[in-house]
Automatic annotation (TrEMBL):
This is CDP-diacylglycerol-phosphatidylglycerol phosphatidyltransferase. It comes from Myceligenerans xiligouense. GO terms for molecular function: CDP-diacylglycerol-glycerol-3-phosphate 3-phosphatidyltransferase activity. It is found in: Membrane. Keywords: Lipid biosynthesis, Lipid metabolism, Membrane, Phospholipid biosynthesis, Phospholipid metabolism, Transferase, Transmembrane, Transmembrane helix.
């Protein structure tokens, strides 16, 4: 969010509508990945990635930053990451430890929600590291799926996909540590 922009309580905004479409695409993707419809699943992931970028740009440029949007956007990101991880794990494209590493971080941060609520705070703003981590993971997963196609494209997608995965997981945990530091500062009043 740009400094100085007001956060609205409006529900019906263009960025919120885009985020709702992204949320609706989550079960579509889940069905496609389970059905081994990889080409269509990749299209859905691409559309999700583009709309993730677009809703943020439009929220800022149209001055439609809203409380609901601040919840919907990261929710759609988390659901896509979770469903994609489960689908790729079910298909044995990624190992179970990757799911555990990402879910463990989210569970640790979920434990801070009651602390923040008790202190009178809502959710914390997404850090730059958190945004980059989400970006890396949301680009890693389609590449890992594309790696299943084999050949030179598959080999390249495999290498680049795992590079994005490692960076994403590392930054995901780094951002989680940043959030924990913020919660601690708020809890001790400093």
């Amino acid at each position: 969010m740009s400094r100085g922009q007001e956060i609205s309580s409006r529900v019906l905004t263009v960025p919120n509508a885009i985020s709702m479409v992204r949320l609706a695409l989550v079960p579509v993707f889940a069905i496609l990945i389970v059905a081994h419809e990889d080409a269509l699943a990749l299209v859905v992931l691409a559309v999700s990635g583009i709309t993730d970028w677009l809703d943020g740009v439009l929220a800022r440029s149209l001055h439609q930053i809203s409380r609901l949007g601040q919840v919907l956007d990261p929710l759609a990101d988390r659901l896509f990451i979770f469903v994609t991880l489960l689908g790729l794990t079910w298909r044995e494209i990624v190992p179970i430890w990757l799911v555990a590493a990402i879910l463990a971080r989210d569970l640790v941060l979920a434990l801070t929600v009651p602390v923040l609520a008790r202190l009178g705070y809502g959710t914390l703003n997404v850090s730059q590291a958190g945004k980059v981590a989400t970006f890396a993971l949301l680009y890693a997963f389609p590449l890992l799926l594309l790696a299943e196609s084999g050949g030179a494209v598959g080999t390249t997608a495999h290498v680049v996909g795992w590079a994005f995965t490692w960076w994403g997981v590392g930054l995901y945990w780094f951002a989680g540590a940043q959030y924990l530091v913020q919660v601690r500062r708020l809890a001790v009043g400093g």
